[in-house]
UniProtKB/TrEMBL annotation:
This is ABC transporter ATP-binding protein. Gene3D superfamilies: P-loop containing nucleotide triphosphate hydrolases. Residues 8-221 form the ABC transporter domain. Belongs to the ABC transporter superfamily. It comes from Paracoccus mangrovi. The keyword Kinase does not apply. GO terms for molecular function: ATP binding. InterPro entries: AAA+_ATPase (IPR003593), ABC_transporter-like_ATP-bd (IPR003439), ABC_transpr_LolD-like (IPR015854), P-loop_NTPase (IPR027417). Keywords: ATP-binding, Nucleotide-binding. It comes from the Bacteria.
Amino acid sequence: MGPQGPGLRVLGLRHGFDGGMAIELGELSLSPGALVVLTGASGSGKSTLLYLLSGLIAPQAGQVLWGGTDLARLSERARDRWRRQNAGFVFQDFHLLTELSPLQNVLIPAGFGRFSARALRGRAETLLARFGVPARPRAAVLSRGEQQRTALARALLGDPAILFADEPTASLDAGAGREVADCLHQLAGEGRLIIAASHDPALIARADLRLHLAHGRIGGAP
Ligand SMILES: Nc1ncnc2c1ncn2[C@@H]1O[C@H](COP(=O)(O)OP(=O)(O)OP(=O)(O)O)[C@@H](O)[C@H]1O
């Protein structure tokens, strides 16, 4: 089992840019152990909602509750600390340092967490093996699917209870995308809360909860 956090609860969330409202959300509860996929047209607010839920940006109004902690009320520094302790991130374009090995990439966030250097190395090796990433000298020679699974291993190094993924399969071919979607589904089954923004039918098909955004609001089925 992975670590199980309290889940996220959102109340009265509002956030806009330049007068326009990007997100308006009355109430939303996201339970641990679920793969939640945010869908919606370009500009509907998926990335902004991910940033709000992960404390990367503070909302103009409302609460983002993780148990008794309201991320919206924390200072930027306290939100950074919360993210380091509880959250992992995966992006569309991997953000790997391609001259480093997969193992070195996974160990980049080391030092922030609660594990010793030795335990971290063991965790990194276990995660890479779990996701089927070969031990190659440089990340540059990995396939795109292997690169994204390396990024996934890196996001999990600190054993976060919540994982955010912004279009994690969008730059992969269908087969590699399905593998990453399967990994995310399995990670949710272990008790983590996984929140992804995606247009990918393979990832949407594996979701426990689909939230369709239109003009910053959660509406009916996609
Ligand atoms: N930093 C910003 N400054 C100004 N406007 C922004 C900013 N970030 C997002 N927006 C606006 O907020 C709205 C929602 O954008 P967001 O990036 O969250 O949408 P999205 O659904 O993730 O789109 P995409 O699928 O293209 O990534 C858009 O109208 C966008 O232009």
